[in-house]
Amino acid sequence: MVENARSINIVASILLAIGILYIVGPLYLTLSTASQSYEYMLRNGLAWVPGTELFANMGKVIHDTRIPVQMLNSMIVAFSNALATCALSFLSAYAIVYFRIRWAGVAFALILATIMLPLDIRVITTYQVASNIFSPLNAVLDFTGLNSLIEMAFGSPVQLELSVLDTHFGLVAPLVAHGTGTFLFRQFFMTLPKDLFKAARMDGAGPIRFLIDILLPLARASFASLFVLTFLSGWTQYLWPLVGASTPDMQTAVVGLARLVPDADGQVPDFPMIMAGAVLVSLVPLTMIAVLQRFLVQGLVLSEK
Amino acid sequence: MTAIDLSIRAAAAEIALIGVTKSYDAKNTIIPPIDVTLRPGEFTVVLGPSGCGKSTLLQMIAGLERVSSGKIVIGGREVQDLEPKHRGCAMVFQNYALYPHMTVAENMAYSLKVAGVSKAERAERVGTVAKMLGLADYLTRKPSQLSGGQRQRVAIGRAIIREPGVLLFDEPLSNLDAQLRHDMRVELAELHRRIGATSVFVTHDQVEAMTLADRILILNKGHIEQFDTPKAIYHHPASVFVAKFIGSPPMNILEVEGDGSVLRLADGQVVANYSAKGKFQLGIRPEDIAVNEGGSIKTEIRYREDLGSHEILETKIADQNLRIAMPFGVEIDTTQTLSLSFPQARLHLFDGETGRAIANAFGDAHSAPVKEYQ
């Protein structure tokens, strides 16, 4: 309605301003706190004005804490998470869309179920499996009675043990098992002309050739957007890295930041240094978003469809 | 050097389907056993309503669908178990199915690239085909920058560049507008004459079938209703299904009963002389009905459609619809009762039960006997 545009505009602007304040306020506080000294904070409480200590604080983070090592961990986790998710999702979506497979619908439903059952819900069972990745196998052997047979034959039952806790693999693997990427690629493949696969077959290209020559170049944008999305989510993961890694040298940067707050009561945390760390840790995803935001939007739009 | 036009020329192959069937499960038979031979270099149009199995048939020849049983022989070789690339077929798809990220030249050369043809030869053959199809100026464009007709031409170029013995078309013109469809039809006919590959063209458009085909294969629920030249199919439809499917407007089919000497409509009007008893279906084309020439069948006009070149009159006799096509220039008083007669030589008689045509029911039918093809 055109005649109401002015009043609506004003209301909308006010709402937007409140929203921006809500988001930018804490960000500003982070930055201003990060640029003040510990002593200033102890004297004045909340730092509303920026100071000059930002680089000094950052230097403290780099020299006095494990944040640099932990950022490297985060990098490894986020990068392998993104890479593995892209590869797996692409291949599984390819299988589901282009091949007549028995139970394809069921397989896809199970993949989608991982979206409805995120890691946060499964964290305890995931921890159990990660602490001994053979535990499902052991359970099956016990349950089917095979183990009692083995015990009769060899004197002792099979109990395999291998823990992936405190390893990069253990940090990454549970994150990769997520269906969003498969869904995204499936949606993208469905938008392609359905005779493309047949045309390629008539041209003499087998399934692998089709995958490499046709599908991969076409899916470049989807790849990029999924990569950015999974990289960001890998970088900002908190719960699983907290549970899955217990030594400071294996923890990720986000967990490390939380650990900078001393456990002991009564001591005021060095908030300027912690905030400087937060800024430092945010730099990587921030750069990522800045450089690849085109794909980020594209990916969000695609996964909405 | 020979003229460049002749450099793309295929060695046409004969296609024989021997007892070919297709079913997805025990209950669901798409194609009952089918036996048919397509001569080398022949342009066959497979015509039928949607869901009659014509696309399935084409894809079985191409190798994109497996046959459930039977043999497919192309150029003397049994191919039913071979991959598409080993069958010597190329295909043009309904929605073009061009590779969106490749240029026109890359699209056309892709099959050669897969086959390991050298870059220089690829470029040369792309040049030849592009010239032939009028695409020489568009070689570096992407499919999204082309019009529908140009995309269709690229799809055709991609198919003929390998000089296949068999060219398959899956409703390739159905995405084009009427004018372009006509132009492409002319172009396709011309192209077929030059390349000479055995062509199978699937469509549900009878105009495409009538104009392009050497022979038309009419499919109904997977079985062959008739396989003959367009002329023969128009003038001697083998069944009621064919009669109703070909011609615009289609042939009128009337339920009649024979009493041993004449055929009568349900209301008792005599429409023709015939010496057998029983139920029949009588066919007459709208343009063959004689109006106001002293006929004994009376009717009134319910609706008229003026199409410029001719006029369609909708009438009813004995509660059955009857369409009459009047040539341009004949004045009809729409308020008056029409008197119709059905020239005996123009009548088609079909069995009342099976719908199959009864040959020579009214003596030697049709003034100009249709010549046998080839």
From TrEMBL, chain A:
The keyword Transcription regulation does not apply. Its main location: membrane. The complex is composed of two ATP-binding proteins (UgpC), two transmembrane proteins (UgpA and UgpE) and a solute-binding protein (UgpB). One of its GO terms (cellular component) is plasma membrane. Coiled coil: none annotated. It holds the Pfam family BPD_transp_1. The keyword Membrane applies. InterPro entries: MetI-like, MetI-like_sf. Belongs to the binding-protein-dependent transport system permease family. PANTHER family: ABC TRANSPORTER PERMEASE PROTEIN MG189-RELATED-RELATED (PTHR43744), SN-GLYCEROL-3-PHOSPHATE TRANSPORT SYSTEM PERMEASE PROTEIN UGPE (PTHR43744:SF8). This is sn-glycerol-3-phosphate transport system permease protein UgpE. It is found in: Cell inner membrane; Cell membrane. GO terms for biological process: transmembrane transport. The chain crosses the membrane at residues 7-25, 75-97, 103-121, 170-189, 210-232, 273-297. Residues 71-292 form the ABC transmembrane type-1 domain. It is a multi-pass membrane protein. Part of the ABC transporter complex UgpBAEC involved in sn-glycerol-3-phosphate (G3P) import. Probably responsible for the translocation of the substrate across the membrane. Keywords: Cell inner membrane, Cell membrane, Membrane, Transmembrane, Transmembrane helix, Transport.
Automatic annotation (TrEMBL), chain B:
It holds the Pfam family ABC_tran. One of its GO terms (cellular component) is ATP-binding cassette (ABC) transporter complex, substrate-binding subunit-containing. PROSITE patterns: ABC_TRANSPORTER_1, ABC_TRANSPORTER_2. PANTHER family: MALTODEXTRIN IMPORT ATP-BINDING PROTEIN MSMX, TREHALOSE IMPORT ATP-BINDING PROTEIN SUGC. Keywords: ATP-binding, Cell membrane, Membrane, Nucleotide-binding, Translocase, Transport. The gene is ugpC. Its main location: membrane. It comes from Endobacterium cereale. It is found in: Cell inner membrane. Belongs to the ABC transporter superfamily. Residues 15-246 form the ABC transporter domain. This is sn-glycerol-3-phosphate ABC transporter ATP-binding protein UgpC. It is a peripheral membrane protein. Gene3D superfamilies: 2.40.50.100, Nucleic acid-binding proteins, P-loop containing nucleotide triphosphate hydrolases. InterPro entries: AAA+_ATPase, ABC_transporter-like_ATP-bd, ABC_transporter-like_CS, ABC_transpr_MalK-like, ABC_transpr_MalK/UgpC-like, Mo/tungstate-bd_C_term_dom, NA-bd_OB-fold, P-loop_NTPase. One of its GO terms (biological process) is carbohydrate transport. One of its GO terms (molecular function) is ATP hydrolysis activity. It comes from the Bacteria.
